[in-house]
Amino acid sequence: MIIEDRPIDFTLGSAPLELPRGGAFRDYERPGTATFFLTAPEKSAAHLVGDFNSWDSRATPMETDGNGFFWVTVPLRGTTHYRFGVTKDASGRRVWVADPYAREVRWDQWGPKAFLGDDPPYAWRDQAWQRLPLRDLVIYELSVRDFAGEKRLWREKLGTFDGVRARLDHLQRLGVNAIELMPISEFPGDSSWGYNPVFYMAPKSLYGRTAQFKSLVDEAHQRGIAVILDMVFNHAWADQPYHRMYPPLYTSDGKPLPDLNPFFHHPENGHANSWGGLDWDHGSPYTLAYMQDAVRFWLEEYRVDGFRFDWVGGVEWDPWQPKREGFDPYYGIAPIARAARESAPTCYLIGEYWPISGAHPAKTAARLVHETDIDAVWNGEFHHTLERCLTQTWQWERQDVSSGLGGFRGQGFAGADQVVNYMVSHDERRPEHEIQFWGQHIQLADPVEAQRYPTRWDLALQKARLGLVALMTLPGVPMLLAGQEFGEDCERTIAFWPLDWGKLDLPQGKAQLEFCQRLLRLRQDHPALRSDLVEFYWDDFQRFKVLRYKRWDGEKDVVVVGLNFDNASQQVGLGFPEDGRWLDVLSGEIVAVTDHWHDFTVSPWQAVVLAPA
């Protein structure tokens, strides 16, 4: 683990006790000094270079325990950039790498170098912050680069932590209470989604410094908004120091030596990574320790509220035991999640998981939740089902819609808070784009009705509203993609594509935002919509394309919903537990229910949502 504090009179001596596995620490051994640590198994020697010794490659050799653990204490006041020179092999050749545990990183023509700042301790103001139960969250996924960026004809301005912080009031007014940041760990280059990580404990320097990220977390908490980080533990990019210390080695006849890197699989030994980059060896205790340190660090240093773990199927894949039926508590994601849970018992742990080809078929997403500390998984079944309904792909009406949208128990989950539902994430095309530019087959049956939608964007926004109703009223934890609240219709691209905030100045964008706000207030006000309880009315969906259901909380709260996915109006009859006055939340009209039943005429691609008035 990373230990911040030691007594002033503590002396390292010749044998490390429970010391940090990496990083630089001020006044660790004595005042006016900095102590640097490095874990490099099987390496015989290492040197420290930096601004403080004029980058003299021989001036500062590091002490070692002889087992690949190195440390050195040097006089230091002020800031410094630094690198480690690690002796690669018996020839004495060295490779110069940045600290794998660096808290800040800068890049120059020779590659990355660690930066040790000298900032005063951050003064947190979020003492009143308490995490809500996962089932009460509405998550908002965003990329710092795109959410707070600007693109003009003469320049591009990538987003920053300060830029995200400046829009927290918008998110608070929208009604979301958790933001999920696409990966912010340091990666090569300036512009990326972040799924090419290199330094797992350093925020991307282009987004801002450590204090700026702490300020973002702090101010989000003061607005009742949790901060969840997307972590990529499946793979890393080539500048990763633990890769550069251990280049691929071969025997004299050209055969790979796969066991000579204690952190990564050998790329030519059947462990190529399907996403590109370098494949971490999750069976290695060194890899596990590094990733456990990373999650602890973000939780403790930055007070983040949890993680979304990218591509858990890859993290979990064991090439030596591919048919293992369950989740090993000491391999892959389980011990990483356990370390996070021990560090912050109430943190949110969300996985992106689907069975990898060749794995045991019983190794399901539900089993991941049951057998590890993972709380919930992204619900791809919900997304796929809803997307087919909205974009009207081939034979979409023949789906088992109630199972796809509300059948979390059928998938093996014990509660609705074990699935995160989404209409779109960063991995898919936005429906507003797909319907507008790829959905010419989507037409209204009534030409008069069609006049309500003068443009394809207007039509796409209406279908998106129907999807939003489903997302906010069906069982599960809902997640929005940034811009969804005002009808962002940009294409899916990993290139820099900032949100078009100008849409909020258009009548359509304003209307979409108000509609979304109404739905989020509905979910907040009605515990029935956050419960596990749902009852689907029987419907011939293939014929009428209508979905009806009732939500309740086991107490007195009830919400009744009817969704019309057809391109023509439909008569929708809904049953109610009590007669009397019910509010149609979307229209604002009061409905008088008698005999526990009421019939509605629901226009194409619209919904009715009824709650007690």
What share of residues is helical? 10-25%
Kindly provide the name of the CATH class of the domain at 23-116.
Mainly Beta
Q: Based on the structure given, which CATH architecture of the domain at 23-116 is correct?
A: Sandwich
Rg: 27 Å
Shape annotation: elongated
CATH third-level topology of the domain at 23-116: Immunoglobulin-like
Percent of residues in beta strands: 15-25%
Describe the fold and architecture:
- By secondary structure, this protein is of the alpha/beta class.
- 24% of the residues lie in helices and 23% in strands.
- The chain has an eight-stranded parallel beta barrel with strand order 10-13-16-19-20-21-22-23, surrounded by four helices. A six-stranded antiparallel sheet has the order 24-25-26-31-28-29. Strands 3, 6, 7, 8 and 9 form a five-stranded antiparallel sheet that branches.
- A hairpin with a 2-residue loop joins β11 and β12.
- The N terminus is likely disordered.
Question: Topology of this structure?
Answer:
Blueprint (H helix, E strand, L loop, with lengths): L22 E4 L6 E7 L6 E5 L12 E2 L4 E7 L4 E8 L6 E4 L7 E4 L2 E6 L22 E4 L1 H4 L2 E3 L2 E3 L3 H6 L1 H7 L3 E4 L3 E2 L12 E5 L6 H13 L3 E6 L3 E2 L4 H4 L33 E2 L5 H17 L4 E4 L2 H5 L16 H11 L4 E4 L13 H7 L4 E3 L1 H12 L9 H6 L12 E4 L8 H8 L8 H4 L5 H18 L3 E5 L25 H19 L8 E3 L4 H4 L1 E7 L5 E7 L5 E6 L4 E5 L5 E4 L3 E6 L4 E6 L1
Parallel strand pairs: 10-13, 10-23, 13-16, 16-19, 19-20, 20-21, 21-22, 22-23
Antiparallel strand pairs: 1-2, 2-5, 3-6, 4-5, 6-7, 6-9, 8-9, 11-12, 14-15, 17-18, 24-25, 25-26, 26-31, 27-30, 28-29, 28-31
Helix pairs in contact: 6-8, 12-14, 14-15
